[in-house]
Amino acid sequence: QSIRYGTSFGYRLPVPNGNYDVVFHFVEPSATASGTRGFHCLVEGQNEIPSLDIFKLTGKNRELVISVTGMVRDGELNLDFVPAVAGHVPVISSIELHRSQL
Predict the structure, then answer these.
(1) Which DSSP string corresponds to 44-101?
(2) Distances from the Cα of 5 to the Cαs of 10, 35, 39, 48, in angstroms?
(3) Edge-to-edge order in the sheet of strand 18-27
(4) Are 53 and 40 in contact (CB under 8 A)?
(5) Mean local confidence (pLDDT), 72-98
(6) Distance from the Cα of residue 33 to its chain's centroid
(7) Is the pLDDT of residue 1 over 70?
(8) What is the C-alpha to C-alpha distance for residues 102 and 99, in angstroms, rounded to an integer?
(9) For residue 46, what are the CA distances in angstroms to 7, 28, 71, 80?
(10) Backbone angles phi, psi at 45, to 5 degrees
């Protein structure tokens, strides 16, 4: 089990242009109440998962899986995780990337 967290962070993944299904795996490792961690997940600059509060949806130490589709036009898939509220810290457990059949 591993996680990445920080005040804001992102990934720049070189991929061929096209549509991609991005599957995010989240686990809340430390919060004990809803509202203590809230962040946005951006795919190619679009806020695909706004104001995510993992604890509110699953509680502590339980997996939350969310899938979104993004279109790459510049040969690089951009994924960004940014605080929704000052003092909150984004967290991610893992990311899967699949070429979309769209």
Answers:
(1) TTEEEEEEE-HHHHH-TT-EEEEEEEEEESSSEEEEEEEESSTT---EE-EEEEEE--
(2) 10, 17, 11, 19
(3) 63-72, 18-27, 94-99
(4) no
(5) 96
(6) 20
(7) no
(8) 9
(9) 19, 23, 10, 9
(10) 80, -5
Six token digits for residue 50? 């706004």
Which residues neighbour 18 within 8 Å (Cβ) at sequence distance 6 or greater? Answer: 71, 72, 99, 100
Q: What is the pTM of this model?
A: 0.94
CA distance 73 to 37: 32
Q: How confident is the model at residue 50 (pLDDT cuts 50, 70, 90)?
A: very high
Average pLDDT (71-76) is 98
Residue 101's pLDDT band (cuts 50, 70, 90): confident
